[in-house]
Amino acid sequence: MRHHYWEWPIATYLFLGGLGGGIFALTAILQFFVFPGITMVSEVLAWPCFLAIVFCGLGCVLLVGELGQPLVFYRAFIKNTSVICWGARVLSVCMIFGFIWFLSYIPWDWFSGIAGFLAIFRDFCLALAGLGGACVVLYTGIFLSSLKAHSFWATPALPVLFTISALSTACACITISIGWWPAELTLNTLIVAEVIHELLHEIDVILVVCELVVLLVMVLSFLGAGNVTANKVAHRWVNGSWAALFWVGMIGLGLVLPEILYVFAGGTLASSVVAPVLVLAGGCLLRFLVVYSDERAPLPGEDLFYEKLPDNKAPFIHKWTYGKNIF
Amino acid sequence: MTRYVMVIDQRRCIGCRSCTVACRTWNDLPLDIVYNPVLTEGVQGEWPNVRRNWLPTLCMHCEKPACVPCCPTGASRKDDDGTVWIKYDQCMACKACVNACPYGMRQQSHLRPRLHQYIQKCTFCRDKRQMDPSAQPYCVLTCHQKARVFGDLDDPNSEVSKLINGAETFRLMEDLGTGPQIYFIPDLGGTAQ
């Protein structure tokens, strides 16, 4: 039966969190491992990282707004055994150190003193933000897959799928936004931006294929061998009411078309703008499809019981007042 | 050591839902929340061999509850006596526990004020038992068929121990490994003693 408690803000948060975390993780990898010592790499990636902070911040706002008690959101940091708690911690680390790192690149004159001071900690901040970002990318999938009441979520394939998707969307976002302010427009920055653009372009070609394979393996294995609940969801995806969304939206427009554009339309607007936008839309759609596939195995007769309950919007239900009905 | 469990005798339950009403009344539950729904799959079989089983449910107070470790605030707790409960003033209603519970026994009322919502569930009437340790949950007290029996499983002389040792019982979704502490005596067509 549908066990529907998490709405669109959670799906959007998972997408934005994965995207933001992925951008920071890729930036740290590029700066420390792929192009070590070339400081201009961080400079051209500063704007994508600023976007990552905005995405993560927006995700947090949505997440807090979804709480039943938004004003006490700080309680989320308390308990070590909770995946959500670790997610909140790594997201905070990623955003705080990422923001400090970004501030060190702001070129405004009146800000130069602070930026100069913060520049001392650039590597340290980027390392922590990148590590936090990598953890956020992993966490978004682990978050759902740890809830074993939902058969479609409780699979090791889901964290893998979300990780690949987060990195893929991060590649797409970086390729669109690389080299903008605060990077100075010089020949050197243009060359560095182009080199990174090409590299991420090739990485995304591989990631999109991997995502396609993992997604199909996950859904089709549930279709063939999953338990009753997961099987029901898989049928809805493959040949049920969500088949158009899955095949046309997710597989077709979100993965196959961008892959074709990446491979066969290299160097054109279709490859450098349209394909990344489609990848981003596909990543968002994936989170929505997964979050809304929250079926739980029903107890015997449970469906029948809840069908008979009155609608929550019925007027007599709203007459109830807390604390005034004690027998 | 005390280990509270409940035994529900399906042979005795007639589906009157007194337990549901008693629970709702005494706990002053919002109208969109039910702690202990009495379920049925309807009439089964073909005439004249027809039967209707009732499945009174509630929080399973699991031995290894999925809802406790996933709570980021520490509001979801488990007492030494096995009672799983929520410290309401620590809950922020993130709904992680609601999604973690395989039995769907945690709920959020949307009738409370928007900024003061929290997750609710059956606590084996913990507040009542704190005042009087020998007290029984309201659903048990109100069941005129004595289909619900509550007690300490670690006490070999308790009624629940005798029932569990003396009859064939089952627990819901045992394969999930949560160790539910609600035992059901199935109605296999015989008559309750």
Structurally, the number of domains of chain A stands at 1
Average pLDDT reading of chain A: 92
State the separation between the terminal residues of chain A, measured CA to CA. 34 Å
Instruction: Report the end-to-end length of chain B measured between terminal Cα atoms.
Output: 30 Å
What Rg of chain B, in angstroms, do the CA atoms define? 17 Å
CATH topology label of chain A: Formate dehydrogenase/DMSO reductase fold
| CATH first level of chain A | Mainly Alpha
How large is the share of residues in beta strands of chain B?
15-25%
Helix content of chain B: 10-25%
Total beta strands of chain B: 11
Q: Helix share of residues of chain A?
A: over 70%
Explain what the structure shows.
The complex is a heterodimer of chains A (327) and B (193). Chain A has a single domain (8-299), classed as Up-down Bundle (Formate dehydrogenase/DMSO reductase fold), CATH 1.20.1630.10. Chain A is built from 13 helices and no strands. Chain A has helices at residues 8-34, 40-44, 46-66, 83-103, 112-118, 122-145, 157-177, 187-225, 228-239, 243-264, 269-291, 302-308, 315-318. The longest helix of chain A has 39 residues, at 187-225. The radius of gyration of chain A is 22 Å and the shape is globular. Chain B is α+β, with helices and mostly antiparallel strands. In chain B, a hairpin with a 5-residue loop joins strand 6 and strand 7 (84-86).
